[in-house]
Amino acid sequence: MDDIRQLLLAAFDAEHREHLAAIRAALAEAEAGRHADWNDVFRRAHSLKGAARAVDLPAVEEVAHRLEALFDRVVQGRAGLDRATAGVVDLALDRIEGLVAGLPGNPEPEAPGDAIAALDACLSGAPIPQAKPGPAREPSPEPEPAAPRASDPAPPAHEAGIAYLRIASDQVEELSKAVHDLGAVLQGQEVVGAAVAGLESGARALRRSVDTVQGRTGEMVALARRLREAGDPAGAALDGFVDRVRRLDGDLRGVIRGISGLARVQSRSTGAVETALRRLRDDADRLLLVPAETVFGGYGRMVREIAREAGLPVEVRLHGLDLQVDRGLLQALKDPVLHALRNTISHGAESADARRNAGKPEALSVTLSVASKGSRLVVTVRDDGRGPDLARILETGRRQGLVPERAEPTPHEILDLVFAPGFSTAAAIDRIAGRGMGLSVVAEAARALRGQASLRPAEPHGTEVAITVPLSAARQPVLLVEASLRPGEAPQTFGLPSGAVAGLLRLSDRDLASVAGEPAARIKQGGRDVIVPLVPLASLLGSGVAPLPLHDGLVRAVLLRCGASLCAVAVDRLRDVRVLLVGPAPPLGGDPALMSGTVMLADETPSLVLDPDGLCARARVGGLVAAAPVAAPERRTRRVPTVLVVDDSITTRTLEKSILEAHGYRVFVCVDGQDALDRLRRDGPEVDLVVADVEMPRLDGFGLLQAVKADPGLTRLPVILMTSRGDPADIRRGLDLGADAYITKQKFDQRELLDTIGQLL
């Protein structure tokens, strides 16, 4: 049961971040005077409440319930969302984020009193109480006179209650390397297994030969009898030979049984060792590689708390925090990024009149982005504030002796001055600015990591600080693929940074399209059909025009994300994702625009890691595909009943999927009614029953049910509605539309769901 709860909490962690980000994005749209989809915001608050109930987090459920009520009033037009109310929503979202972040140390948190009181005041029309600074905030002490070492950051405050064991990073590296070396050694077991299998095959061939001889023993026995009757001594000798053949047959049967038993034991042992090794390898790699969220995830809340204390409205956006990065690299960037974010408040904030006159929204916008670009990690902090004042920076540089009196530096050289130790344009020292240590810490950390820091004006307003460091000599998740560069050649293994991989595709003939004479793939992206270019990897790597590789009637491809665009690269085989030590790209032997590094595989074979941006740029050239394959899609034989689970909550989908799979069902999942209807119209014969929520975007459960019952090919498909809407009118409506069963989530019992499915199937 603990494993199930951990799985659900992991799903809830991802889901709640998605909902909070969407609600914050809607608030930002409304703040900027643009249209915000309040129906979607209301639905997300509703889904968040239901998901919190599913994982038994009443503190989050209480806050989400009040947010749902508030957004319902906005949807109905009975309440507006002024700046004060938006601030209360921001506070509530921060508190939810803090509650979830603190679950490892406090699995049963109490509801946040300040957020509850502020939301109740909004709902009742009472004055909104002043919020207290949140306890989960990252620390924001004044900088020390000496800059902290980038390689030795302080642990965050919220880790104080957790026991940690300090281990040198090189020891963890050695452990990970030893595990991977063990994997290479154990690959020798495959040779032993092959030898045992060969021995078993040889013994069975010998047995067949003996069977052939054994089949003629009847003739030998008759001949031996005639020879004995004739007084010929050869008859006795022939009888002895027949006896030996029979004994040999029995002995050989025993040998084959022994070899077969050995083969089974060896196979089970090898499988167990491989499973244990894979688990050990994954655990060892996880010590070194973590999502950027683990280090930077709390910074959005921290910036909002600093701004709240200063009485400044602020909108914070975090992008790319799901990127997997070496733990040591993230920790080395922890303090520099913190200083850069604090700098946006101390130097980017403007008065409300100044922002209004510049045509900006009232709230300062701060964005933290983490991205992998080729072989480099880029962390960007951007704001839409006042922007760098070149004249003031130059004046300060002259006053501090950093610029000779008559020198006329370029704008780029002027902006570089801000990274000098002790440099500050702040008029006075306060809690977050004035000592001149912030951006110098950023520059020193970047240099220590063999990278660089830059500051430049952002378009159309504000400042952008970028920290760029190499990913070389850091462990990264790498997707391994195989591709034959020329016909008849053995396939080669290549790596792709998994952070740039948007998905893995197995394309049948119906998924292929043609755009301007070039092959393309038809995929689902963001709930809609999207056409993306499809190019063989062999063509991109300079092997000339090549056909799309076709195996078992399918084209296998990697969907790469290149900025805002997508590109599908066809390969011969998709292997797996491995966390590997990525070294620099070779100086010779290939196009540097297509290579970002090298890795050493388990068998000590080097492999190139390709640059996704370079591949996408090459794919845009076109004319790289010889011919598009045509193959009939293969139908998959259904061995067990298949249930389609339809729910916009990932937590609920995970819960229902886990329950059904644990009881032997095959499970498909869809995120809303339209997604489910598309799936049913495409793969309807594979689905035996549908379990659907009612409250969903695009097409709700009632609409899905109505469409299913109106489709002649789907009308006999059983549909169960399982929803939090327990009103008798809703139940009657669902049953009138043709639902085979209606289950309410408030009294959800998995036995009831399983019994209902069992009866319908």
TrEMBL record:
Compositionally biased region (Pro residues): 130-146
Keywords: Kinase, Phosphoprotein, Transferase, Two-component regulatory system
PROSITE patterns named in the record: HIS_KIN, HPT, RESPONSE_REGULATORY
Entry EC no(s): 2.7.13.3
Pfam families: CheW, HATPase_c, Hpt, Response_reg
Residues with 4-aspartylphosphate modification: 693
UniProt xrefs under SMART domains: CheW, HATPase_c, HPT, REC
Span of domain HPt: 1-106
Classification via SUPFAM superfamilies: ATPase domain of HSP90 chaperone/DNA topoisomerase II/histidine kinase, CheW-like, CheY-like, Histidine-containing phosphotransfer domain, HPT domain
Xref: InterPro entries: Bact_Chemotaxis_CheA, CheW-like_dom_sf, CheW-lke_dom, CheY-like_superfamily, HATPase_C_sf, HATPase_dom, His_kinase_dom, HPT_dom_sf
GO terms for MF: phosphorelay sensor kinase activity
Stretches assigned to the Histidine kinase domain: 247-473
Enzymatic reactions: ATP + protein L-histidine = ADP + protein N-phospho-L-histidine
Region of interest (Disordered), residue spans: 127-157
Signal peptide: none
Modified residues (Phosphohistidine): 46
Domain Response regulatory per the UniProt entry, residue ranges: 642-760
GO biological process, one term: chemotaxis
Protein task: Involved in the transmission of sensory signals from the chemoreceptors to the flagellar motors. CheA is autophosphorylated; it can transfer its phosphate group to either CheB or CheY.
Protein name listed in UniProt: Chemotaxis protein CheA
Organism, as annotated: Methylobacterium terrae
